[in-house]
Specification:
The complex is a heterodimer of chains A (282) and B (293). Chain A is mainly alpha-helical. Chain A folds into 2 domains: 6-53, no CATH class; 74-280, MetI-like fold, CATH 1.10.3720.10. Chain A is built from 14 helices and no strands. Chain B has a two-stranded antiparallel ribbon with strand order 1-2. In chain B, helix 11 (248-258) runs antiparallel to helix 12 (262-289). Chain B has a single domain, classed as Orthogonal Bundle (MetI-like fold), CATH 1.10.3720. Classes of the chains: A mainly alpha (282), B mainly alpha (293).
């Protein structure tokens, strides 16, 4: 700072610490709830500090699930979420990077139409075209399948733009050199462009992994078989089972497990995450 | 911007854009076309029979009081989510930017809520405010406030707003912090030498320079409140009690899947897409002219 104002600095620290505490509070309470017995969690006020039942609760949800009709072991829903998140992230990156390559490095009839067709998808998130998209997927026989969970979500304007932006910044001399040396376009893509795009790919991966993991409406619509349920939708579904007293300890253990993977990805890949967020909005 | 050096191949580029275009056509354009087509039809609930009714669904929609109630609610909701979200994250960003020691640590503690699924965020906040075991509901009761979001519509809306803001906070924070850090220190120093105090410097220099980022975030937050909050609403209140939290995107889903009113739901989809197109155009228009960032 430009001047020394100890009081203001102290105040800033206090405000930020208070903010961090308030923001973390829901997750702290979730964690606390996941470490107590069901009985403890039924009487208000509930404890503010962790209890002794953590291992028991987590083992129960991981192996048996929530223990009610229609509950699935969380290991299974976690696996489904992982498959979906990885499928969406890798799928999006794969199809976006090759279409960005085509749009930047080739001149071909219809190029601008294709560019705009991809651009328009920005304005059509699945939430606003729910019913007809469900209809299309049902017609294609893709309900209750990993393909149905993943493929409709992997067309992405943001990823295509990110890679287009990056390719445009790659010096032309590299392309010329590759051409002089007789490299085919695909050779140039594999050996030069792809290795250069590593950081963009990592940034994109973090953003899209979170996007895929946190999908809610889509898996809710197209899965009716338990074996395809994702963890996020199970948490919400079990929280809303009517006419019963929820087993908060187990529900919150499930919620913790649903949050953990994407939160870990963000915390450990923070640089790529921030980069991904800022870059995709350019 | 175009490349000067390109490759010359006849079929390869089509092969490369193929997967993306096929998925876009099948899962974006076909359904959107169907939404427009279905919005012009009335289908009876058992399927099979449909009748072309031209703009009847839209006329019906715009004469429907419950649709207007939902639209009004959505406007109020997005206003609250955007203003509260921006105000809180700006405060945090300004404070975090002031402290040199610990700024990166604070950042690490503030970015993770982005990774929590909206639907899970709804469950978390629902637990805190649960009328029978929620710790905050219990505290509020201690000071004489009866908080029951299951029966009280305004409280339900408030809770949905809180959960939605919480979920979006890290996004806003990161962009504000990046904006703050890109303001040249020499400007601030010059103002300080001229005798401007921290408050004065904030309002006269930092705030105007941040306004482009703020405006960008405003649009993003409105889009988020319109579309991205579906999971929060569905896992917290299911649009209730009554219709107190039934925002437009939730109504599309509710009328289409619960009510089986395909024509009406499609008409709503078309309206929502139009709103989204307008917001996206504003966003891109603005980005082109964005100077300070």
């Amino acid at each position: 700072m430009v001047e020394n104002r100890p009081f203001l600095t102290l105040l800033s620290h206090l405000v930020v610490i208070l903010g961090v505490a308030i923001i973390a509070f829901p997750v702290w309470m979730t964690f606390v709830a996941s470490t107590h017995s069901q009985q403890t969690m039924l009487q208000s006020p509930i404890p503010l500090l962790p209890g002794p039942h953590m291992i028991e609760n987590y083992t129960q949800v991981l192996t048996k699930g929530y223990g009610r009709v229609g509950s699935t072991a969380v290991t299974m829903t976690l696996t489904n979420s992982l498959i979906m998140a990885l499928g969406v992230a890798i799928g999006k990156i794969a199809i976006s990077i090759i279409s960005a390559f085509a749009i930047v490095y080739f001149r071909f009839p219809g190029r601008m139409y294709i560019f705009w067709a991809i651009f328009v998808t920005l304005m059509l998130p699945v939430e606003v075209r729910i019913v007809p998209t469900y209809g299309v997927v049902a017609n294609l026989g893709m309900l209750d399948s990993y393909g149905g969970l993943i493929i409709p979500l992997i067309a992405s304007a943001t990823a295509t733009f990110l890679f287009r932006q990056f390719f445009l910044s790659v010096p032309d001399e590299l392309t010329e050199a590759a051409r002089v040396d007789g490299a085919s376009p695909m050779r140039f893509f594999w050996d030069i462009l792809l290795p250069m795009s590593r950081t963009s790919i990592a940034a994109m991966f973090v953003i899209q992994f979170i996007y895929g993991w946190n999908q809610y409406l889509w898996p809710l619509l197209i899965t009716t078989k338990e074996s395809y349920y994702t963890v996020v939708m199970t948490v919400s579904r079990q929280a809303n089972v009517v006419d019963s007293v929820p087993a908060w300890n187990l529900l919150m253990a499930m919620a913790m497990l649903a949050m953990l993977p994407p939160v870990l990805v963000v915390v450990f890949m923070q640089r790529q995450f921030v980069r991904g967020l800022v870059e995709t909005e350019k | 911007m175009e490349k000067r050096v390109t490759f010359h191949e006849r079929w390869l580029p089509y092969l490369l854009v193929g997967p993306q275009i096929i998925i876009t056509l099948v899962f974006f354009f076909w359904p959107s076309g169907q939404a427009i087509y279905q919005s012009l039809l009335i289908e009876d609930a058992f399927g099979g029979n449909s009748k072309f009714v031209f703009l009847d669904n839209f006329i019906h929609l715009f004469n429907d009081d419950s649709y207007f109630a939902s639209a009004r609610l959505t406007v109020v909701f997005s206003f609250l989510v955007a203003t509260i979200g921006l105000a809180v994250s700006l405060l945090l960003a300004v404070m975090a930017d002031r402290v040199i020691r610990g700024a990166t640590a604070y950042k690490a503690f503030l970015v993770w809520p982005y990774a929590v699924a909206p639907a899970v965020a709804g469950v978390l906040w629902g637990f805190l405010f649960n009328p029978s075991v929620g710790i905050i509901a219990w505290m509020l009761q201690g000071i004489g406030i009866e908080f029951n979001y299951v029966t009280n519509g305004n409280q339900a809306l408030l809770l949905v707003v809180i959960a939605a803001v919480w979920n979006q906070l890290s996004y806003n924070f990161l962009f504000f912090l990046a904006g703050l850090q890109s303001i040249p220190k020499s400007l601030i120093e010059a103002a300080a030498i001229d005798g401007a105090g921290p408050g004065r410097r904030f309002w006269d220099i930092i705030f105007p320079l941040l306004s482009p980022v703020g405006f960008f975030l405003l649009v993003i937050n409105i889009i988020y409140a319109f579309i991205g909050t579906f999971g929060v609403v569905d896992s917290l209140t299911k649009g209730g009690p009554g219709k107190a939290t039934e925002i437009l995107v939730f109504k599309v889903y509710n009328d289409g899947f619960r009510g089986q009113d395909l024509g009406g739901s499609s008409a709503q989809s078309v309206v929502l897409i139009t709103v989204l197109v307008i917001l996206t155009v504003i966003q891109f228009r603005f980005i082109e002219r964005r100077v300070h960032y």
